[in-house]
Specification:
Length: about 450
C-alpha cells in the first residue's frame, strides 16, 4: 500500500464519521442542486449542448499541437509573451524570473487550480514575495492555512460561523460578523493589496486559439482586478484549456456557469487579448501566458484517458459523487479531488502512488451523468484500475485471492462443495477491509443450485 493510499484511508475514515462535516457539505451541495435545474432551462436541449461541447473539446485536444501554435502566433501578435513549461519546477522558475525582473515584492492572485498544482504561494513566500489570494473563498482558505476544498467552491466545508470565527482570530474582527460584513472586511483588506502589487497572477478558464486570448470566468470581479491593476499580468494555464475559436464561448460560458454554480451566466466573463495598447489607459503594461504541461501530455498520449482533458473544471462531478459527499475534498490529498481528480491524478503524478483513488468510487455513474462535457468518468476509473493491474501494480496476495475467486466462480460444482457456513467463514475471515465497516456476510445454507432444483421439482 502506498503512503498516499494509507493517508487517504486514514483521513477518509475520520471524515466519513464526522457528522458535522457532512451536514455542512450536504447543506451547500443541496443549495447547488436547487439552482442547477433552473440554469439548465436556458438550453433548448441540454444533452445536445453537452454533446456539442464534448465534440468541440475533442477537436481541440485531437489537434492540440496545432491549436497551441495558432494560439501562440495570435497571442504574440497581440503583444503577449508566450512561454511553455514542461514541469511545475520550470513554471515556477519562469514566474520567479519575471517577478525578479520587475523587483516584485507583492502579488495579487485570482483563483486558479493550476497555481495550487504548483504550490505557487508557498514557493513565492520562500522567495520573499507575498502572494495574496483575492477570491473570497481562496482568501478564507489562505487565512486558515488550508488548501481549497473544492475546485469551484474552495471553502465549501466552512459555515458562515466558521468564517466569522476565523476572521476574528486572524484579522481581529468582532466574532459574530454577518456574511455581508465579512465580505466588506475582505474587500477592504484586498483593495490595499491591489494597490501594492507589482504583479497579478491568474489562471484562465479557456485559451482561445484563433484570437490568442484567455477567458476568465468569476463572480467577484477580483480576477479582472488581478490582471488589470498591477503593471504585469502572468496567466498560467494548463494546455488542455484550449478552445479552437472565440465563437465556442457562446456555448462554453453558459455551460460552465450552469454546471458550476447553476447560474445562466457567471457575473464576470473577461476576454483578455494582450497587455494595454497604445491608445488605452487601463491594463497591465506587460502580459505573459505560461502554457503548462506538468503531466498533461501523459493523458494526451493515452487514447482512453485522453478524454479527461476535455474537463472544464465545473465541479459538477464532485457535487454528485457519494464518496466526495462523505469524505470531502481534503481527504484525497490531491489538488484535484472527486471523480475527475481520481481519474487524472494517477496520470499527472504517479499511477502506483495514486491508483487507490480509482477505487474511491461506488461506480454508480452519477459523475458521468452530470458531467458538463460528457466525460465517461466512471469508465475511466475502471480503465485506471485495469492499467494499474496490467502494470503489475498489485500484491501477490491479491493475485492469488482473485485467481481462487475466478476458479470457484467459473465452476458451479466446486462452489457447491462448500456449505453456506464455510463460505461465510472464508469471506468474513479474509475480506477484513470489507467487514470493517459492514456487518458480516451471511450466506444461505442451501446453494443457488440446490434452491433452483427444489423450485423446479
Ligand atoms: S469532469 Fe465533467 S463534471 Fe467533473 S469537473 Fe470536469 S467538466 Fe465538470
Amino acid at each position: 500500500m502506498s503512503d498516499q493510499s494509507t493517508t487517504f484511508l486514514a483521513k477518509s475514515t475520520i471524515k466519513a464519521a464526522d457528522r458535522e462535516h457532512r451536514r455542512k457539505i450536504n447543506f451547500n451541495i443541496a443549495r447547488y442542486n436547487a439552482v442547477v435545474p433552473q440554469g439548465k432551462q436556458q438550453f433548448t436541449n441540454v444533452h445536445l449542448a453537452r454533446e456539442r461541447a464534448k465534440n468541440t473539446k475533442w477537436k481541440a485536444i485531437e489537434s492540440l499541437d496545432r491549436q497551441l501554435e495558432t494560439f501562440e502566433a495570435a497571442a504574440t501578435r497581440n503583444g503577449t509573451r508566450v512561454l511553455y513549461a514542461e514541469t511545475a519546477a520550470e513554471a515556477l522558475q519562469q514566474i520567479l524570473e519575471i517577478c525578479k525582473a520587475k523587483n516584485c515584492r507583492s502579488i495579487v492572485k485570482s483563483k486558479s487550480m493550476v497555481t495550487e498544482e504548483l504550490h505557487l504561494n508557498r514557493f513565492l513566500e520562500e522567495n520573499g514575495i507575498e502572494s495574496v489570494e483575492t477570491d473570497l473563498g481562496e482568501y478564507i482558505q489562505q487565512l486558515d492555512g488550508e488548501a481549497p476544498y473544492h475546485i469551484v467552491t474552495p471553502a465549501m466545508h466552512k459555515s458562515k460561523e466558521d468564517v466569522a470565527k476565523l476572521f476574528a482570530e486572524k484579522l481581529g474582527t468582532p466574532p459574530h460578523l454577518t456574511p455581508q460584513q465579512l465580505t466588506l472586511v475582505a474587500r477592504e483588506k484586498l483593495r490595499e493589496k491591489y494597490r501594492q502589487a507589482e504583479v497579478g497572477i491568474t489562471g484562465a478558464n479557456f485559451l482561445i486559439a484563433d484570437t490568442g486570448s484567455i477567458a476568465i470566468t468569476e463572480n467577484e470581479g477580483n480576477g479582472r482586478l488581478s490582471c488589470g491593476w498591477p503593471q504585469t499580468h502572468i496567466a498560467i494555464v494548463g494546455i488542455e484549456k484550449m478552445l479552437p475559436s472565440i465563437n465556442d464561448l457562446a456555448l462554453f460560458w453558459p455551460l460552465l456557469a450552469t454546471f458550476g454554480t447553476g447560474q445562466r451566466m457567471t457575473v464576470y466573463n473577461s476576454l483578455i487579448s494582450g497587455p494595454r495598447r497604445g491608445d488605452e489607459t487601463d491594463g497591465p503594461g506587460e502580459m505573459y501566458v505560461i502554457l503548462l504541461d506538468n503531466g498533461r501530455t501523459n493523458l494526451l498520449q493515452n487514447p482512453k484517458a485522453r478524454e479527461s482533458l476535455y474537463c472544464i473544471r465545473c465541479g459538477a462531478c464532485l457535487n454528485a459523487c457519494p464518496v466526495y459527499k462523505n469524505i470531502g475534498g481534503h481527504a484525497y490529498g490531491t489538488t484535484y479531488s472527486g471523480p475527475i481528480g481520481s481519474v487524472i491524478t494517477p496520470h499527472l503524478r504517479d499511477l502506483d502512488e495514486y491508483k487507490h483513488l480509482s477505487y474511491a468510487s461506488s461506480l454508480c455513474g452519477n459523475c458521468t451523468e452530470v458531467c458538463a462535457v460528457k466525460i465517461n468518468l466512471h469508465e475511466l476509473l475502471l480503465e485506471n484500475r485495469a492499467e494499474a493491474v496490467a502494470g503489475g501494480s498489485y500484491s501477490y496476495g491479491e493475485r492469488v485471492a482473485w485467481k481462487l475467486w475466478k476458479t470457484a466462480m467459473l465452476r458451479r460444482p466446486l462452489m457447491n462443495l462448500a456449505s453456506g457456513r464455510m463460505k461465510g467463514w472464508v469471506v468474513n475471515t479474509f475480506m477484513k477491509d470489507w467487514k470493517r465497516h459492514r456487518s458480516p456476510l451471511d450466506f444461505p445454507q442451501k446453494s443457488f443450485s440446490q434452491q433452483w432444483q427444489e423450485r423446479r421439482r
